[in-house]
Specification:
175 residues; alpha/beta; Rossmann fold; 5 strands; globular; binds shikimate-3-phosphate
């Protein structure tokens, strides 16, 4: 079946946006970072939205954004780390495009997410062992959803070039 869009899923810090931007260049498709799209549509930051309305409201609004972007063609979408894990978002993404789980170890994720200037509301203020524990618990909760992706790739091993080759080799991309 022809692939009209690609959804990149995975934990915060897994490199969804970096891979998405590379794929944009390689495939000549559009690229949407779902978090940026959200902020543009609601004219606020995610941090601010969480602070004002809370996580439940964020998930409902995020769901709306997922269905909006699912209508676009020749587009790579980097989803937020929680997006696949709420409502039937993962099912919707699987119906509308190729889903790819960028899988990384807790150690690698903790290393990438340990910036003291963290803007992501779920991990703001966490560091060291606390951050590692949070990541490993949250990842265990979320992996059953991420694992519904059509492609599961070990990014500790594969690297961006490897991902690009796999996708180009599928031969089913919309021209
Ligand atoms: C979230 C991940 C963030 C953003 C929000 C919630 C999550 O996106 O959507 O802060 O629940 O994991 P990134 O995965 O792009 O950081």
């Amino acid at each position: 079946m022809e692939i009209k869009r690609i959804f990149l899923v995975g934990f915060m810090g897994s490199g969804k946006s970096t891979l998405g931007r590379r794929l944009k260049t390689e495939l000549g498709w559009d690229f949407i970072d779902l978090d940026d799209y959200f902020e543009m549509r609601f004219n606020t930051t995610i941090k601010q939205f969480f602070a004002e309305y809370g996580e439940d409201a964020f998930r409902k609004a995020e769901r709306k954004m997922v269905s909006e972007v699912a209508a676009k063609e020749k587009t790579i979408i980097a989803t937020g780390g929680g997006a696949p894990c709420y409502f039937d978002n993962m099912q919707l993404m699987n119906e509308f495009g190729l889903t790819i789980y960028i899988k990384l170890s807790v150690e690698t994720l903790a290393g990438r997410l340990s910036s003291p200037k963290q803007v992501r509301p779920l991990i703001a203020g966490k560091s060291g062992e606390e951050l590692k524990t949070y990541i490993s618990q949250k990842l265990a909760e979320r992996e059953p959803f991420y694992n519904k992706a059509q492609v599961i790739a070990d990014a500790d091993v594969l690297g961006v070039d490897g991902f690009v080759r796999i996708i180009q080799a599928s031969g089913q991309l919309m021209q």
